[in-house]
Amino acid sequence: MFLAAEPERLGRFLAVTGIGPEAIRAAAAEPNFLAGVVEHVIGDERLLLEFAAHAQINPAEVARASAALGGPDLERDQP
């Protein structure tokens, strides 16, 4: 998992979401967990660009994934 590869990234994710390290496995089994992870990534431009580079994809693909998972559609919402 991209976020877990760097302690700082994982720590920020846990702090923002309120999930404790001991509960992350259980949280990952929840239906909306992935949508929350993607929303977290697109909510931080630096993190989004790092993830897109790591995954070798266009950042817009992450926004489309968020929309497909029921998150905000950033492309549609932009003026």
Helix-strand layout with pairing:
Elements: H1 7-17, H2 24-28, H3 33-42, H4 45-55, H5 59-68, H6 74-77
Describe the structure.
By secondary structure, the chain is mainly alpha-helical. The chain has a domain of 44 residues. 65% of the residues lie in helices and 0% in strands. The chain has six helices and no strands. α3 packs antiparallel against α5. The protein is globular and about 35 Å long. The N and C termini lie far apart (33 Å).
Poorly predicted sequence stretches spanning 5 or more consecutive residues = 74-79
How much strand?
under 5%
Residue-averaged pLDDT, rounded? 88
Structural class: mainly alpha
Alpha plus pi helix count: 6
Order of helices and strands: HHHHHH
Helix content: 55-70%
Task: Write down how many β-strands occur, each being a DSSP E stretch of 2 or more residues.
Answer: 0
Shape label = globular
Question: How far apart are the termini?
Answer: 33 Å
**Major sheet attributes:** none
Task: State the main characteristics.
single chain, about 80 residues, mainly alpha, about 0% strand
Compact summary:
This protein is mostly helical and about 80 residues long. It has helices spanning about 5-15, 25-30, 35-40, 45-55, 60-70, 75. The radius of gyration is 13 Å and the shape is globular.
